[in-house]
Amino acid sequence: MAFERFKKFNIDPLIAKQPATPRDSSRLMVLHRDTQTIEHRIFRDIHEYFHPGDVLVLNNTKVFPAKLFAHKATGGKVEVLLVRPQQDPQVWTVLTRDYKENAELDFGDGLRGVMLGKTPNNEVLIRFNQEDILPFCHGHGLMPLPVYIEKARKHEGLTPSLSSDKERYQTVYAKYEGSIAAPTAGFHFTQELLQKLKDKGVRIVYITLHVGWGTFKPLRGEPQQHHMLPELAEVPAETADIINAARREGKRIFSVGTTSTRTLESFTENGLTQSGKKWTDLFIYPGYQFKAIDVFVTNFHFPDSTPLCMVTAFANEDFIYRAYSEAVEKKYRFYSFGDSMMIL
Fold first, then answer.
1. Domain shared by 38 and 104, yes or no
2. For the segment 80-123, what is each residue's pLDDT rounded down to a tens digit?
3. Are residues 192 and 248 in the same domain?
4. How much is the pLDDT for 296?
5. Which of 4, 96, 135, 281 has the highest count of CB atoms within 10 angstroms of its CB?
6. Domain count of the chain?
7. Does the predicted TM-score (pTM) go above 0.85?
8. 155 in a domain, yes or no?
9. Distance between CA 190 and CA 178 in Å, rounded?
C-alpha cells in the first residue's frame, strides 16, 4: 500500500478543530529541496521567500452551504450533500447514505425532490422542483465541513458545525461559488499579507477549480490504480499571460494548494500555460514531471490521500516523511484547519 509508513503517526491529537486566529498566525514549515533542510516559521513570514516579479497563484472558488436535510414520505430523515448540477439545472448529483429509487424528499420551505438513480461513481441523482436552489441552500444549508472535524468536535462536546464556519471555512479571496470543500492551503492568507506581497512586487493571479468529493476519495491500493473524478477548472487569459511572462523572465510560480497545482499542470504544455475552462481528472503522484510550478504551498494531509501523492511527487517521499516526523514531534496542527508547508 502507498505511504503505509505515514500511518504510524498518531495524528488524532493534532487534528485542528478550529482555524488559527488570526489566519496568518498559523505555523509554516519551509522545505528546501536543494539542501534537504527544514525551517520552522510563522505563516506571516512567507513574504520573505518571494522576489519581485514572482507569481502567486490562488484558487478563488467559494464553498456553498451544500449540506441539506430532508424528510422522506415515511418520515425518515435524510442528509444530502450537493455535489454539482447536471445539464438539466433541476437535477443535481448528490452524496447520501439514504438512497431509495423514486423516494420523494421534502426539504421544507417549498423545496422538494425525488431520487432518480445512481451514477457509476455511486453518487445519487435528485430532481428538484426548482431550477435555482442556491437561495434555499444559503437560507437552510450547512457548510460541508470535513467529517473528521465534525467527529473531533463532537468528541470534545463541541457543536459539529458552527455559525462562524460560513466565514472561516472560506479563503479571504473566495469569489465563485461551486465547491463542496475549501482549497484549504489558502486559509492562511489575510488581505494584509496579500497587500504586503503586492507591495513587494509579487504578481497575484487567480484560477478557479470547484472542489468535488473526488479530491478526498481515498486511495485503495497503489497510486497507479487510482482514478481521479473530474473537477471543473478555469484559467483566465490574464492569469495565463502573467504566468507565461514571468516564466520568460526567469521568475518563480508559487502555487497555493493541490487544486491550483492540478489546474496549472492541466493547462500547461511545452512551457506555456493556456487559458480556458475544462474538466480535469489529472492525478499527480510520484514519477510525475511538473511543468508549471516552482514552489508548492500546502497543508498536512492524510496518509492515504491524493494530495499526499502530489506532495511526494513534488519532493521525494523520504524528505516528506522526515518533514511529517518533525511536524508530529513539534505538534504542528494537521489537515484543513491546520498549519502549512511550503516546498521550495
1. no
2. 999 988 889 899 999 999 898 899 999 999 999 999 999 888 89
3. yes
4. 98
5. 96
6. 2
7. yes
8. no
9. 22
Reading the block at residue 99, the C-alpha cell is 438512497
Does residue 214 share a domain with residue 115?
Answer: no
Q: Are residues 222 and 338 in the same domain?
A: yes
Q: What CA–CA distance (Å, rounded) separates 313 from 319? A: 11
Residue 131 buriedness (CB in 10 A; 0-12 / 13-18 / 19+): exposed
Contact 228, 177 (CB under 8 A): no
Counting Cβ atoms within 10 Å, is residue 321 exposed (0-12), middle (13-18) or buried (19+)?
Answer: middle
Is there a contact between 273 and 293 (Cβ–Cβ < 8 Å)?
no
**CB-based contact 339:32 (threshold 8 Å):** no
Q: Could you list the residue range(s) of the whole structural domain that residue 124 is in?
A: 67-140
Count helices and strands (H / E) in the chain.
Answer: 8, 19
Indicate the helix (H) or strand (E) that contains 127: strand 124-128
Please state, rounded to an integer, the average pLDDT across all residues of the chain.
92
Calculate mean pLDDT across residues 4-23: 90
Q: What share of the chain is helix, strand, coil (3-state, %, to 5)?
A: 30, 30, 40
